[in-house]
TrEMBL record, chains A, B, C, D:
<comment type="similarity">
    <text>Belongs to the glycosyl hydrolase 39 family.</text>
</comment>
<dbReference type="GO" id="GO:0005975">
    <property type="term" value="P:carbohydrate metabolic process"/>
</dbReference>
<keyword id="KW-0326">Glycosidase</keyword>
<feature type="active site" description="Proton donor">
    <location>
        <position position="159"/>
    </location>
</feature>
<dbReference type="InterPro" id="IPR000514">
    <property type="entry name" value="Glyco_hydro_39"/>
</dbReference>
<feature type="domain" description="Glycosyl hydrolases family 39 N-terminal catalytic">
    <location>
        <begin position="5"/>
        <end position="465"/>
    </location>
</feature>
<dbReference type="Pfam" id="PF01229">
    <property type="entry name" value="Glyco_hydro_39"/>
</dbReference>
<dbReference type="InterPro" id="IPR051923">
    <property type="entry name" value="Glycosyl_Hydrolase_39"/>
</dbReference>
<keyword id="KW-0378">Hydrolase</keyword>
<dbReference type="InterPro" id="IPR017853">
    <property type="entry name" value="GH"/>
</dbReference>
<dbReference type="InterPro" id="IPR049166">
    <property type="entry name" value="GH39_cat"/>
</dbReference>
<protein>
    <submittedName>
        <fullName>Beta-xylosidase</fullName>
        <ecNumber>3.2.1.37</ecNumber>
    </submittedName>
</protein>
<dbReference type="GO" id="GO:0009044">
    <property type="term" value="F:xylan 1,4-beta-xylosidase activity"/>
</dbReference>
Amino acid sequence: MRIVVPQQPTAPLSDAWRTCVGTGRLDLALRRDYQESLALTQREIGFRYIRGHGLLSDGMGVHRPYEHAGERRVRHAFTYLDQVVDAYLELGIAPFLELGFTPSQLASGEDTVFWWKGNITPPADEKEWAELVRAVLRHLIDRYGLDQVREWPIEVWNEPNLPIFWTGGQDGYHRLYEVSALAVKEVDAGLQVGGPSLAPGYRDEWIQRFGAFVEDRDLPIDFVSRHAYSSGPERHVPFGTHQTLMPASALLEQFAAPRQQLAGTRLAGLPLHITEFNSSYRPDNPIHDTAFHAAYLAPVVAGGGDVADSFSYWTFCDVFEEVGIPTALFHGGFGLLTHRQIKKPAYHLYAFMAQMGDAVLARGEDHLVTRHGDGRVTVLAWAPADPAGGDPVDGHTVRLSLPVGSPGARGSAFCRRRSVSEEDGNVWAAWCEMGRPLAPTGRRLDALREAAEPGRSHRSVPVTGGRADVDLVLRRHEVTFLEITPVVDETPEWWDAGRLLGDR
Amino acid sequence: MRIVVPQQPTAPLSDAWRTCVGTGRLDLALRRDYQESLALTQREIGFRYIRGHGLLSDGMGVHRPYEHAGERRVRHAFTYLDQVVDAYLELGIAPFLELGFTPSQLASGEDTVFWWKGNITPPADEKEWAELVRAVLRHLIDRYGLDQVREWPIEVWNEPNLPIFWTGGQDGYHRLYEVSALAVKEVDAGLQVGGPSLAPGYRDEWIQRFGAFVEDRDLPIDFVSRHAYSSGPERHVPFGTHQTLMPASALLEQFAAPRQQLAGTRLAGLPLHITEFNSSYRPDNPIHDTAFHAAYLAPVVAGGGDVADSFSYWTFCDVFEEVGIPTALFHGGFGLLTHRQIKKPAYHLYAFMAQMGDAVLARGEDHLVTRHGDGRVTVLAWAPADPAGGDPVDGHTVRLSLPVGSPGARGSAFCRRRSVSEEDGNVWAAWCEMGRPLAPTGRRLDALREAAEPGRSHRSVPVTGGRADVDLVLRRHEVTFLEITPVVDETPEWWDAGRLLGDR
Amino acid sequence: MRIVVPQQPTAPLSDAWRTCVGTGRLDLALRRDYQESLALTQREIGFRYIRGHGLLSDGMGVHRPYEHAGERRVRHAFTYLDQVVDAYLELGIAPFLELGFTPSQLASGEDTVFWWKGNITPPADEKEWAELVRAVLRHLIDRYGLDQVREWPIEVWNEPNLPIFWTGGQDGYHRLYEVSALAVKEVDAGLQVGGPSLAPGYRDEWIQRFGAFVEDRDLPIDFVSRHAYSSGPERHVPFGTHQTLMPASALLEQFAAPRQQLAGTRLAGLPLHITEFNSSYRPDNPIHDTAFHAAYLAPVVAGGGDVADSFSYWTFCDVFEEVGIPTALFHGGFGLLTHRQIKKPAYHLYAFMAQMGDAVLARGEDHLVTRHGDGRVTVLAWAPADPAGGDPVDGHTVRLSLPVGSPGARGSAFCRRRSVSEEDGNVWAAWCEMGRPLAPTGRRLDALREAAEPGRSHRSVPVTGGRADVDLVLRRHEVTFLEITPVVDETPEWWDAGRLLGDR
Amino acid sequence: MRIVVPQQPTAPLSDAWRTCVGTGRLDLALRRDYQESLALTQREIGFRYIRGHGLLSDGMGVHRPYEHAGERRVRHAFTYLDQVVDAYLELGIAPFLELGFTPSQLASGEDTVFWWKGNITPPADEKEWAELVRAVLRHLIDRYGLDQVREWPIEVWNEPNLPIFWTGGQDGYHRLYEVSALAVKEVDAGLQVGGPSLAPGYRDEWIQRFGAFVEDRDLPIDFVSRHAYSSGPERHVPFGTHQTLMPASALLEQFAAPRQQLAGTRLAGLPLHITEFNSSYRPDNPIHDTAFHAAYLAPVVAGGGDVADSFSYWTFCDVFEEVGIPTALFHGGFGLLTHRQIKKPAYHLYAFMAQMGDAVLARGEDHLVTRHGDGRVTVLAWAPADPAGGDPVDGHTVRLSLPVGSPGARGSAFCRRRSVSEEDGNVWAAWCEMGRPLAPTGRRLDALREAAEPGRSHRSVPVTGGRADVDLVLRRHEVTFLEITPVVDETPEWWDAGRLLGDR
């Protein structure tokens, strides 16, 4: 059946999909590979905010106690924070600040998370913590201006409902939230603070209790946050993990949950930020590198804006060290890019979205059609991606009747198409064909970079009655982008292709 | 029939194909589009020399007579020449100097050639001409060093056998050659001078008379030069010309001619430079923009090194104004690139050649196979291109048995392929589909730039007995490049692709 | 006497000085040296518009008549115009369009101006001219959008009151203005058209007659334009010209003249653009290269905004060919920069202005003091520049009491100063010391580039009662820029400079 | 007394000063600030090798044991090592490899050094250590080629004579050397291995015992290495250390010591590399940031090549974390550059050296004079720097009679001079004037960057009899560079400076 796409938009296309993206711990932002990867991402996708852990951890070097004149004092040092934020702003992206983890010299215990040892124990001294929070924010305001910092959301901690991230329990988190939120507002009432940044699928009831706590104490809160992942139990191999996945719709359900759980409270009406999402929550699951992954996430990225104000893909690149330094170019990292700016299929899903218009003409389970201010029509379409492994090889077809030019126009249109699938733009497949080299040389990196580019084609289609019929036949796990532009024919009247090789 | 490519090279691959390339008049080299086009060309192809007209014409501003103290003097000014040569050297290319045309204030008449009015009359004063030649060379030596300038060939004039380029007749040319060659050697005996730069198909006997003149007078000569074109009579349309073409072999015959014509003279043993070649000699013939053109020239580029020391494609880009400023993005210009660095199919023929190894394993009428120092094997193959228009649509097949790795090796190889054809990397076709816009906007330029990239694919092939069988099925007018690399398999023993979606 | 600069601004600083800058003919904008020079200028100065001749001349290749089917037609080609305007916009500058000169195939005669032969005769066919104007504007609107093109002023012709620029006489100019202005408004009523672009000091009465003509015929006019130069009669030497200069105040008088001359007419209230100004109108007068020139123009640049809406320095760089291709690196060109981005003293006058704040605290005959949004205070001061040659060697002193920080503040301020004078930032002097090389090599260019940088110094000054006393002692022909910032002292209490070499 | 510098060279200028430079731990090389700092350093100085700690430490992620099929195995991973070495080679510098420290999962204990916790205990398993060494070298050879890796010296450990760097004692070091050197040579006999990398001033007798051990066991050794520092006891303040310094000559004595200590052994004739040197060995001693430091080191840098084959300044930049993350822009780090590429005075000492010629004309206690291939003469001169603090304020004078042009030449020469001193190019002084801001904003960084540039001047000096007299009057702690070039006068005969302002 052919879908007749209307001439007029039904709704604006929400920007929620590009509002935020995740990153490895903040001091990784000092690195060149990271910055080059982010520069590429911003040039071709253009996220608005970036969120990662470790703002207050030792690697950033902010909290620096010392002894002088016989007493303990604290110097707040911004050598690296300035370099990180300068780089972000230079690349057109702003920080989504996450307050955490505890600096080791302010910590109440020695428990840590990750290979890089973020301290997960409550601060030993609430006043020193509050002063740290205030000092950071005051410095940012001094350096970047109040108007700008007011635009940067401030989230208290990360996934406190998981014991691996927080040893303080729920009451301890509530206390941390209170101290931190009040410290933020003491600096400036216009700064935006929020939480509770919960992980999915464990102690889900924390959100209601958090809501009640905030309401009871009448604490400041400007947004609500949680995370979403769709993977099952971990099966480990050396340097890797395999997991089953739930259907992609499970992610959309997780996005939607907080507004339902908080219904009837003051928090239900606040902006809702999914500050992390992905399929698997493991940075060593090869599913992240596959063509399947782009097709699997396509309906989430195309539709998530209906239920949340942002949903932040965790993470933009594989410069990431939570389970150690990656030992292979492709290692199942979260990144849209792996090391050295090599694009995985999911990168293209986002890059295609960034080429869509701002008004929705049609949306369905396998497509999204938009119109641009200049009249162009663009289509994102995707093949099914079944986490049970039942996908057809090739041939899923999306049939569209697209409006082109003014109603009633005749002539032709120029179609430009880009695709990723098991065959095209699938760099991981090329890497497998190469024998999975852990550390490919420069020549092989070039070949991989080439293989990572989407398939591209163009053609002319006839237009009658202001419409063009387009059949998008999709390959296995294909995500495709189509741009259709009406042709203004400037061919001179004397043109005769038959004369190209002369008058014989 | 499958061609069994030997393991060991039969010959080195001559560098003649990349020794020189042509350019529009030298002051065009001051332009940004020109320099960006040359930068791209050098990065991806890497020519050694560049040759164009106009070194001494008014646009370069070198010859500057003035009156002082009641007498005529000449200042030699190098404001632009320095900028041009600096740019060339910075881009890794050296000038192939062409002495011409006559500065208007040194000319004996007012006849000019081209829209930009190069003066084609003999110098009015031979001494002032000789002094001009010496001043230019001395300045170049001062600025760039004698060692370097000795590497830059110096050609006397351009196509003097055509009356549109030279009003002085053959004796006049002989005199110009004598004065110029002696002036060159007066500066330094190690500088290389040559000629006669004859156009094909008209007064071909000039070359023998030139040879006799040089021998009789015992004049210095370090190389012999001529041009080659394969087009027939001109049929004009507004802003365009159509011509029939001879088979490509005609070009190879023209390359070879001077050594036969000069047989028995001292000149026969000199380096032979084809200082211009192309199919059509018209800068407004759309054949230059086509996929046909790449396939047509492929055997010439792959084989011309057998008969000449260089053969210089005329020209590397469409920044060129001989018949006026181009009025459309695609206008049939000579360039490998049109304006704004958009790659025509013939560009890729050269870019593919630049990826070939330096030892020939096999060569045939539709293929060239080479080996690299690191053991990789590369193939250039092409479909037939019949100037009578009789080419099959698709399906010309080149069947090869290629040596991969050490003799007897087993396993697999990684194949990387790039192609241009009527379908792939054919930007002119995309431009036609767009309605042939004279001046496409930025968005359309992006689409054209994308369409100009070659088709790319990769796959794994089995290797047995140190050999892989490869069938290259070619599309209409395809030129294809294949790189085959033996795979070192690093796949860990625990890898199981069936577990990607978890243990279900 | 010390000038006590008030704490509060007296007026905003007009942007007139940076509203427009002049350029050599438009097709020179295709060149790399030109674009690099403009990029530097925009980075460090930041002009809003750029105006030059030749938009419709043959070198831009716009007007392209041809024969087809037995009749004359015209193709309007934008190959170069698009490259030029793209480059301007990319560099953050917009065209101030000048309609001229006549394309040779539309001209009524063969008279030309300049080495590059701009045709100065009236169009042979007014309809074809009007169609040409409309075609250019319609194309610009298609490509860049109506909103943007409405911001680009459109001036009819250049200096028609000089017979070397226009053979049509005053009535002929009036007719050209009428035809052109109506053609502009036919495309879009919101486009801005103006004139009459008169040269100073010759037939000055034309402006009143032009005003009367426009009023009588009720023609569209959005701005009034004229030029200003302060030089006397020409004395020629080979490749150069010497002229006396009037005092700089003569330029300000010329700026102010049109509003007085047009008093009482509708035109008196229109924006007034001085679309060219300089001291000498000759591109081969070495005065342009000197330190004198910066000091001479300083009061004009600092104060011209009082009397005109813009005054456009003619020209931003020495890529310029009106009297031929320059034969030496320094040749007395108009440019703020000579070739290869070498900065003349007048460049720094503009670069210093670009560092001034947007609110005027004080202004006098040798200084301008401004305040920035962030509280910094900046000073531009200059030594006298007497065109009669009577300037003192050194020692002109500007004594200021500057407000620093909040009223009553105590402590210190950081002063940063940059200067050009006969001694500092005077690249022409360095070039003279080098023996005036016509074409300096790379190493010498580096030395010149270094000599072209302003002198720089910094120091700490005490602040009492919210004020710092600063004595600016100026060298001969110095123009100096001072920035003063209050210091927030972060020196730790334990710092002891005496311990730097250890506790001995 | 005027020093008459001879016309002919006395000796070549040794390259030892630029042969090697130090760096913070290798994984810091992944950072952008680091790479931009190194790029600047290479562009303006151009070191040949770079040496730092941590090649085998956890931060590089090379040694990666895992369990599979019930047994311990080790994967050697090169994700970061490749990025680091790629970056080095891209910047034109090669690694001077230091084998160390022990990966934590191969260590025999938990003792660590530095904030970043390098493990300093002997390997728990010599075979696994040897395999690690071989794997690293084999990988480097695979990736970069044997020819290249053979040029990279390999040093066993760092300062094993200090207990803070090595818990294994001298015998333990000997064993480590033996195992490591044999592993290196097992990979390729042409690789260069050496040691013992001793710190100065503690257990100096280790070197003789090391020599004896190597001779007795007939172990491979290709070079001898040690370190040199001239500072006295540490006096701490928060975030800083003060120390007395020995005279600079003490460094030259330390450079020379090993050849004396090893006299009579096979090792005495080997290349001698001072693989670290500086005044203070503390990364928080502000002396490193001062103008004093450049003057103090000038005689060492100018003369060290007499006694050692290399002496490696520790370190090129302040991206360095041994005592923690720096808390202020200027913090007394070792770097020639502090963060964000800001140049300290010592940077310019090296940058001046890089401008010297390759033949020595004269050398004294306050100057070095060289000649270049093109005939230019360059001078490095320095004021005295007394670590006892007794330096005169200004006025130390170096009087030279310099050969210019051919013997007997008359005319003039162009002198170009650059200086750093307490007044010029002293960014630390500017930072102090600014109030020592821990984290200066962008505008202040610009002012600091400007203040960090050396003072520059130029002038013309007369030449008689092929000589120019030059008096270099030096300011306190000045290091100055002078280039003198003979002038070829191209001034036209008609030039008359008196006509600049016209014929009045």
